[in-house]
């Protein structure tokens, strides 16, 4: 009887935690129409080597985002609702893709998507760590860019992301200076390459 009671308690606790984490995700999807923030991104490979970058992002849901890495070098990821741009100003090179094909190719695209997260991913709860409530999302389709996505919420606010891809890389993203639902200039989500930029269409 005690074993049954303990099992029941653990099951209920797990369900409550999942409900809380899922609620945080739903609140973000339902209540966040736009977002501006600073980010720090750390990418680790199988050998443990890391690359760190930082910058700013702007999101207008659904489908518009601007992800600007500023350090150690500049790179722009931008979705204008129809096309997805990757621009390297040092190389004067821009890669442009159809937005549908590139929808899951960046963390910003996940944040800027529609409210169909639960339809595309299987959700499960993870232990809370350092006051961060974690939710794990595994894609239901095998052709997703990521094997596992983890979302960390602090008091209902998205604070961290962790992404594991097919190549064994782990990308950790930390958000700060978060501004929810600001009015963002539409020009933030437009990109016109200069005449001397090499444009590659994929």
From TrEMBL:
CDD domains: LolA. The keyword Cell inner membrane does not apply. Residues 1-19 form the signal peptide. GO terms for cellular component: periplasmic space. It is found in: Periplasm. Its main location: periplasm. Monomer. Belongs to the LolA family. This is Outer-membrane lipoprotein carrier protein.
């Amino acid at each position: 009887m005690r074993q049954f009671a303990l099992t029941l308690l653990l099951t209920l606790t797990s369900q409550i935690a999942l409900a809380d984490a899922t609620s945080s995700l739903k609140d973000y999807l339902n209540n966040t129409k736009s977002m501006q923030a600073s980010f720090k991104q750390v990418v680790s490979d199988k050998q443990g080597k890391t690359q760190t970058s930082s910058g700013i992002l702007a999101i207008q849901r659904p489908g518009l985002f601007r992800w600007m890495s500023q350090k150690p070098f500049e790179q722009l990821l931008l979705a204008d609702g129809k096309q997805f741009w990757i621009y390297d100003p040092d190389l004067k090179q821009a890669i442009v893709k159809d937005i549908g094909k590139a929808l899951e190719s960046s963390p910003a695209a996940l944040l800027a998507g529609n409210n169909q997260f639960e339809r595309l991913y299987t959700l499960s709860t993870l232990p809370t760590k350092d006051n961060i409530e974690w939710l794990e999302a595994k894609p239901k389709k095998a052709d997703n860019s990521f094997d596992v996505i983890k979302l960390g919420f602090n008091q209902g606010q998205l604070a961290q992301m962790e992404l594991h891809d097919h190549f064994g890389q782990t990308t950790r993203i930390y958000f700060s200076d978060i501004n929810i639902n600001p009015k963002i200039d539409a020009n933030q989500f437009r990109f016109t390459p200069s005449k001397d930029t090499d444009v590659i269409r994929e």
